[in-house]
């Protein structure tokens, strides 16, 4: 019996504790093991959790008892207010896509694919193989396991046209998820007080990472085909920025994919002004009607710093991604990575590599494409049938999200709250705007658990909108 049995015992005992008074005696460990068909180790684990939560106490040789609710003595944290003063940047406690979801809630807010979309068998097998390998006890090189660096370099080389110099494995730096690579890229390529250009709307995590690095975000409007090259050129000129963060393929949140012409034009602008483009290719494994074609494949002068994650497609438990940069920028990034986290667990790197080298990985990606297509189409159809107020700004050819515009009169905060109360989590679009939102948007993710409930979820959004009498 694994962790989930211990969690189940904890949940049941917590419900029971709520109904009994302080001092009530818990059933014996043996009795609990019998009732739940669990091992003594699992029961002990559950009991330790309840002790840790302050709900029960164990008296040696006597048993376990429900703790009395002592009137909590408020702690005095005022000294911290003086010590901390104001935060350099106010970052929200937890962005909506990272919220935990309770059982039975319809989660349309998440950023990570549900378990049923992951190559679970391959991940489990890879983890146990990695656990038996030398990677379980060795420190890997700072830039990553050479074989994994080589895999990321080859993946980029596959989409590099003939005549453009491919990146070398040495240019690849393995990172513990690309969120942390964004921080390094912003710190390494720009630095405190400097401007950074970003598409608007764009990934909330990039906005936060830039804020945390003390950068000033300058928004550049982007539509289904990407930003307007002239507007981008003006933004570079006016702001003096030398860094542009962008998602040319299946952008989060809009799903937009820049046209090939637009990609060329933008790369020319970036070259002309002597700037870096941080290309976040987060959805490389989530093409549906099209494949991701990274700009990095067309750059052989080190302008594009390329970021690719495996945490969404392999497993959120295997936080492994890569940042690929050439020239002095690579040294800057590597230095920042070493200062921040030294190296990434070799165990996780080995497991990630094992998964992507299996023949089953390719077939998994093919199946995933079909599954995402079905899910996207079901969500789009549900919205079109049941949510006449919403404009589907763009049916994405890849990625995991649908971006909907709602009438200006909608109270977004209230909408999210009302849906939440009715058991449906959605994300307000506000978090994806680097400055004032240009309208009222919501983002619905079609990779969450139990797609068959999408229509029901959209029905709840509809009821919440109707409740606002807009
Ligand atoms: C566009 C984009 N970039 C980067 C990330 C970070 O992903 P990870 O840190 O899991 O690699 C995310 C996660 O939601 C994302 O949506």
UniProtKB/TrEMBL annotation:
Keywords on record: DNA-binding, Pyridoxal phosphate, Transcription, Transcription regulation
Transferase in keyword set: no
Residue ranges of every copy of the HTH gntR-type domain listed in the record: 3-69
Entries under SMART domains matching the protein: HTH_GNTR
PROSITE patterns cross-referenced by the UniProt entry: HTH_GNTR (PS50949)
GO molecular function: DNA binding; DNA-binding transcription factor activity; pyridoxal phosphate binding
SUPFAM superfamilies hit by this protein: PLP-dependent transferases (SSF53383), Winged helix' DNA-binding domain (SSF46785)
Claim: Protein biosynthesis is one of the keywords in the record: no
InterPro entries, sorted: Aminotransferase_I/II_large, HTH_trans_reg/aminotransferase, PyrdxlP-dep_Trfase, PyrdxlP-dep_Trfase_major, PyrdxlP-dep_Trfase_small, Tscrpt_reg_HTH_GntR, WH-like_DNA-bd_sf, WH_DNA-bd_sf
One Pfam family recorded for the sequence: GntR
Protein family according to the UniProt entry: In the C-terminal section; belongs to the class-I pyridoxal-phosphate-dependent aminotransferase family.
Protein name: HTH-type transcriptional regulator NorG
Organism: Microbacterium oxydans
């Amino acid at each position: 019996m694994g962790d989930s049995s211990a969690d189940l015992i904890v949940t049941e005992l917590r419900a029971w504790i709520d109904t009994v008074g302080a001092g009530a005696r818990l059933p014996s460990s043996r009795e609990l093991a019998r009732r739940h068909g669990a091992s003594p180790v699992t029961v002990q684990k559950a009991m330790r959790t309840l002790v840790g939560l302050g709900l029960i106490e164990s008296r040696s040789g006597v048993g376990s008892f429900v703790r009395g609710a002592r009137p909590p003595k408020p702690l005095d944290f005022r000294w911290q207010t003086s010590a901390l003063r104001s935060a350099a940047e106010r970052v929200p406690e937890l962005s909506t896509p990272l919220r935990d979801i309770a059982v039975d809630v319809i989660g349309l807010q998440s950023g990570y694919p549900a378990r049923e979309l992951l190559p679970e068998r391959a991940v489990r097998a890879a983890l146990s193989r990695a656990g038996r390998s030398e990677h379980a006890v060795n420190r890997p090189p700072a830039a990553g396991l050479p074989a994994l660096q080589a895999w990321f370099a080859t993946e980029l080389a596959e989409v590099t046209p003939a005549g453009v110099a491919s990146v070398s494995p040495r240019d690849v730096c393995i990172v513990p998820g690309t969120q942390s690579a964004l921080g390094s890229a912003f710190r390494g390529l720009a630095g405190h007080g400097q401007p950074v250009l970003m598409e608007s709307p764009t990934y909330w995590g990039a906005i936060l990472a830039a804020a945390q690095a003390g950068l000033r975000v300058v928004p550049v409007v982007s539509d289904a085909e990407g930003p307007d090259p002239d507007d981008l050129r003006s933004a570079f000129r006016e702001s003096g920025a030398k860094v542009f963060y962008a998602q040319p393929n299946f952008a989060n949140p809009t799903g937009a994919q820049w046209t090939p012409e637009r990609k060329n034009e933008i790369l020319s602008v970036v070259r002309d002004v002597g700037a870096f483009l941080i290309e976040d290719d987060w959805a490389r494994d989530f093409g549906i009607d099209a494949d991701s074609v990274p700009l990095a494949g067309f750059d052989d002068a080190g302008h594009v710093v390329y970021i690719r994650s495996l945490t969404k497609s392999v497993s959120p438990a295997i936080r492994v991604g890569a940042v690929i940069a050439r020239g002095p920028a690579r040294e800057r990034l590597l230095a920042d990575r070493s200062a921040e986290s030294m190296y990434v667990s070799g165990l996780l790197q080995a497991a990630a590599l094992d998964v992507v080298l299996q023949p089953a990985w390719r077939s998994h990606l093919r199946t995933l494409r079909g599954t995402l297509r079905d899910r996207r189409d079901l969500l789009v159809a549900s919205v079109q049938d049941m949510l006449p107020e919403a404009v589907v700004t763009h049916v994405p050819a890849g990625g995991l999200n649908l971006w909907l515009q709602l009438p200006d009169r909608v109270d977004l905060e209230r909408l999210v709250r009302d849906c939440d109360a009715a058991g449906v989590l959605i994300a307000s679009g506000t978090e994806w705007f680097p400055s004032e939102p240009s309208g009222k948007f919501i983002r619905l993710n079609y990779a969450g658990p139990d797609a068959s409930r999408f229509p029901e979820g959209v029905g709840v959004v509809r009821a919440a909108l109707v409740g606002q009498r807009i």
